[in-house]
Amino acid sequence: MLHYIDRLELPQWYDENIMNMMAVNPTTVHLYWELAFGQWKALQQCILVLNLYDVPSSVSEECEPRLIRSLQLPPYTENWYFNDLQPARRYQAEIGRQEDQRFYSIIKSNIVYIPPATPLATTQEIKWRPTANQVVAAAGPVRQPIKETVQELTESMSFYMGINKAS
Amino acid sequence: MPAGYLCLVLHGHLPLVHHPEQTGVLEERWFFEGLTECYLPLLNVFSALKTDQVNFRITLSLSPTLITMLTNELLQERYIEHLQKSITLARLERERLSADPHFKHLAGFYLDKLLEIKDIYEGYQRNLIYPLKQLQQQGHLEIITTCATHGYLPLMTSRASWRAQIKTALDLYAGHFDRRPAGIWLPECGYAPGLDEILKEYDITYFFVDTHGIANSRPAPVYGIFAPVCTGAGVAAFGRDPESSRQVWDRQGGYPGDPYYREFYRDIGYDLDIDYIGPFLPGGHLRVDTGFKYHRITGNGPHKEPYLPGAARERAARHAGDFCRRRLAQLERAARVINRRPLAVAPYDAELFGHWWFEGPWWLNYLCREVAATESLAMVTPTEYLQEYPENQAADLAMCSWGAGGYNEYWLNPSNDWIYKHLHRAEDRMSALADEYPQAGEPEKRCLNQAARELLLAQSSDWPFIIHSGTAVDYAVRRFKNHIGRFNILADMLANHSIHEGTLHDIESRSRFLPDIDYRIYRSSGPAKRPACARNSYRILMLSWEYPPKTVGGLARHVHDLSCALVAAGDEVHVITCPAAGKDIFSLDQGVYVHRIHRELLTAENFMEWINQLNDGMVQAADRLVEVFGSFDLVHAHDWLVGTAAGEISDRLRLPLVATIHATEHGRNRGLHNDLQRHIHSLETELARRATMIIGCSGYMGREIARLFNQPADKLRVIPNGVEAESILSAPNKPATKDDSNRNIVFLGRLVPEKGVQVLIKALPQIQQTVGPVKLLIAGKGPYQPELESLAEGLGVAGQVDFVGFVNDDARNRLLCEATVAVFPSLYEPFGIVALEAMAAGVPLVVSDTGGLRDVIEHGVDGYLTPPGDAHMLARYVSELIKNPELAQHFARRARRNVVTKFNWRQIASATLEVYAEAINRT
C-alpha cells in the first residue's frame, strides 16, 4: 500500500475566479478558466458566451479591442482553443452572458501576444549592441545582408529535428 | 586561420527520478541506461581525445536534476548493482552467442563494453563531476546548465517562477563546478520575451534558440543564424543551424538511420524466452529494454540483419567526415557574404549519443579529430566566439522553442493542457507565501523550502512531454499529481499555521534535491536590481511644480515616491519645485535633494504669469545646481507647468529630456473650449515635442498623448502610477455576511462631472431594488456637488446618499475600512490612483472600463470593469458584489496582492530607469 503522499490527487476546484490564456503557436491560443463556487452556482442554468478580442497594443494604435470570435459555450466547458488566428497580434478572451439585450461580462483573461510566424519582410535600421559582461571590440560595418540565407533557413525549417509536422 | 566556426552543444538532462523510499522503481533505469550508454561513453570519448592531444571544444549542458543524480550516493550504489546484473547477463550472453553461427561475432561484445564502463566508473570514484570539471579547466568543455527541473519557461505565469528555475540552477551548478556558468540552456530552447532581463540579472551571457527564433526576430538578422543576436538586456542568443540538425536528427535522411547502424527497437528484453531473460527484467517478467541489441537497421522492413560493429564504426567515421565537409562548405559560402567568421551552432540532446544512436559517441570522436585536422574549420565555445565578436546585432526575439511545431504545442495540447491550472495556481500561491513570510523561522522555513522544491519538480517539462509522447504516461501523471498534492499539503499547513512534523519529514524524504534552496526567491518583488540597460547611477534633475508638503493633486505624491525609489535604486535626484510653508529653499528629504524657488521670485497674481516666473526660477536654479553638484545626466519634467523650464534647461545643458504627462488639458475638459485651454494645450504640445522620451501613466494616456501631440509611438512608454500599499491600512477581512443593515458603497474623488458620480447616483435605485438597503458615501469636494445633491433628491435616494466632504489620509483609510464596495465610475480617468488605494485597503472594486482604470483592474478576477456612463450595468456589478460577499472577498484579496506586486514604486523606478537609459542612448 502506497503512503498517502505518494498517491495524491489534484484539487477539483480552487474556488477562485481565474481565466488564463496562453499562446500555443502563432495562430492558436489556449485558455482555461474557473469561477468561484458561488458565482458558478448562480450561473449554472445560464448559457455562457465566450468572446475573443484582438487588442491593439498600448501606444501604437488608438482603437478599442475588436471582437473577432463569439460562441456559446457548451455546458461544463472549462477550457478552449482558438485556432487560425492572425500571428503577431494581442488577444484577450471574455466570458459573459446575454441579459435583456445586453451583454453582461463576467470575467476577462490576461492579454496574450502570439509570436510572428515569418521573418520580417521590411528592412529596419540595424543596430549593434555589445553583449553584457564581454569586452567590446569594434565591429565593422555589414558588407551585405545575407537575405537569401535567411530565406533558405526558413524554407528548410520543416525538415529539422524530426519536427516535420508531416512525419 | 579558420573560415568559420563550429559550436557543438550537447544538452544532458533526465528528470529527477529517484525513489529512496523503495527499491526497483522501473523509471530509475532511465538514469542507469543513460550512464551506461551515453554519459560514460561520451566521457570516454573526451578522455581519449584529450590523451591524443586533439584540440576539441564542446559545450556541455548538464541539468541540475542530472547533476543531482550523478552525485547521489544511493543512486551510485544502485547503479553499480544494476551494472553488475547486466554483466552477469553479458556473461550468459557470451556463452549463448558463441554457439550461434549468425551472432558469434557479437559474443562478448557487450561484456567487454560493460566491463570497460564499470572500470571507468569506478576509476572516477563513481562521480562524473570530477573528470568533467577537469575537462572544463583544460578548456575542452564549456559546461553550462539549464533550469532547476527543466521547467518550460514560456508557459509559466510569473517572473518569480523564472527566477526560481534559473537562480536555484545556477547555485547548484556553482556548488559543483566552483564557478558560475557563462551561458544557459533554456529547457526545450523555450524562450519568451522578458526572459533575457532575468538572465542578465544573473550574469548569464548567452543562451540558445531554435533557427526561427533568430530568423523571425525583429529587426531581421542580417547574418541569419551565422552569428548570434544581442537582446535588449544585452544577452547573446545563438540560433541552431538547421543543416547540422537535419543531418543528425532526421529519422529518414539523418546519419542515425544508416542501415549499418544498430537497430534500437530489437532488444533481447523483448526477443528472448522469459525463462531465460526473466531474472534480468523488472519483477522477473516485465519486458523492457536491456541494452542488449544484436541487429542493424538493415532497411525499413521487419527483417533485420546481424549487427556488424566494424562496419558501423567505419560508417561513423565516414559520416563524421561528411558532416565536417558540409559544415566547411556551408561556412565558406556564408563567409563570402558576411564580414566576420560565420558560426554554425549544432545543439543536440546528449542522450541521442549512445542511447538512441548507438554509434553517436564514435561519430563525435571522429568528428572532433576531423575538425582538428581541418585548417579552415575550428570548434569554438560560445564564450570564445563572444570574446572575438562581443558586439552583435540588436534584435528582439519572440516566443519560440525547438519542440515540434517550433512553439508551445508539444507542452500545451489537449493531452496535457490540464496541468497548467494547477501549476499556475501553485506559482501564485508560492509567491504569496514567500511575500507573507519575509523571514520565516523553523519549521515554517523548512516547509516553505520544501513547497518551493515540490513546485519546481511539478514544473519539469518532462511531465507534459511524456504525457504527450504517450510512453510512461502513468508515471508522469503520478509524479505531477504527487508534487502538486505535496505542494498543496505544505501550503495548507502554512496557511493554517499548523505544521505537522511527520508529514513535513515524509515529504522532504521523497525529494532530496536543491539542499540550499531559499524559498524567498519566489517573492513577487524580485531582487532589488537595476535594469540591465541602466548605468549604475544617474544624476537626475526632476522638475515638478508641487512637491510635499505642498500637494494639490496626486502629482506631488507621485514625484516624491518616484524620487525616493530612484534614490533607493542608487540614483542622485535633485527636485526643483515651488516654495512651501516651513520648508527651506534647500532640504535633503529622504535622500532626495529638494531645491525650492525663492518666494520673492513668484510675485505674479495672474496664474500664467506666475507659471512663467516659476519656470524662470527653475532655469536659474538649474544653472546654480550644475555649478555646485556638477553636470546632470538628464532632466525629467512632470506636466506642462514646468515644460518651458524643462525645454530650456535641456537645450542649455544639452541634456536628454524625459517628460511624464500625467493628464492633458484636452482630456480634462473633453476638448479645448477657451483661449487658456488652448494655450495650455500648446505648452503641452511643445513639451511633448521637445522631450526625448515621454512617459504616460496608462495605455489610454499613451494613446491620447500620441494622438493629441502627434508623437511617434517609439517615443512613448507606459509606466503605471504606484501606491505605497504599506501606508494604507488593509481593511480587516470582514466576515462574509449578508447582513443588510450596514452596507456602504464608497466613492472618493473630486466632485466634477468627469468623475461620473452622477452615474453612480442614478444606479442607486436599481442597486437598492436588487440588494435592499444600502448607503452611498461620497467623499470629496467640488463644483458639481449641488447638481449631484439635486439628482439624488430627484431620484428619491437623498436619504441614502451622504456627502462626507474632503477627507484626509486617515479619514480616507477609515472610510475604506467601512466600505462594502468602492466605486469609481469616471468618464475620463488618465490613471486613477484612488482605485489603487482602495485595492491596497482590500476593498472590492467596481470601476469604469476607461482610461487608466482599465489597466488597473483585471475584470472578474480582482474587481469589475463597467462601461462608463452606463448606470444599469454599474448597478448590476455593484449588486453582484454586495449579493455575493465571498466573491467580493476573493476579489479584494487578489486586488491587494496585485497592487503590492504590480504597482509598487520599486517596480516603477526600475521601468523609469529603462526609459532614462533609452533617452540617454538617443541623444
Automatic annotation (TrEMBL), chain A:
Cross-referenced InterPro entries: DUF4912 (IPR032585)
Protein name per UniProt? DUF4912 domain-containing protein
From which organism does this entry originate?
A: Desulfoscipio geothermicus DSM 3669
Q: What is the lineage of its organism?
A: Bacteria, Bacillati, Bacillota, Clostridia, Eubacteriales
From TrEMBL, chain B:
UniProt KW keywords: Carbohydrate metabolism
Instruction: Specify the 1,4-alpha-glucan branching enzyme C-terminal domain's residue ranges.
Output: 422-522
- Summarize where substrate binds, as residue positions: 240, 257, 402, 462
Pfam families registered for this protein in UniProt? BE_C (PF09210), Glyco_hydro_57 (PF03065), Glyco_transf_4 (PF13439), Glycos_transf_1 (PF00534)
* SUPFAM superfamilies, per the entry: Families 57/38 glycoside transferase middle domain (SSF88688), Glycoside hydrolase/deacetylase (SSF88713), UDP-Glycosyltransferase/glycogen phosphorylase (SSF53756)
Q: In this entry, which stretches build a coiled coil?
A: none
Which residue numbers delimit the Glycosyltransferase subfamily 4-like N-terminal domain? 552-726
One GO biological process this protein is involved in is:
alpha-glucan biosynthetic process
Q: Which Gene3D superfamilies match?
A: Families 57/38 glycoside transferase, middle domain (1.20.1430.10), Glycogen Phosphorylase B (3.40.50.2000), Glycoside hydrolase 38, N terminal domain (3.20.110.10)
Q: Is RNA-binding found in the keyword set?
A: no
Residue numbers annotated as active site: 188, 349
The family database entries (CDD domains) matched by this protein are listed as: GH57N_AmyC_like, GT4_PimA-like
Q: What is this protein called?
A: 1,4-alpha-glucan branching enzyme
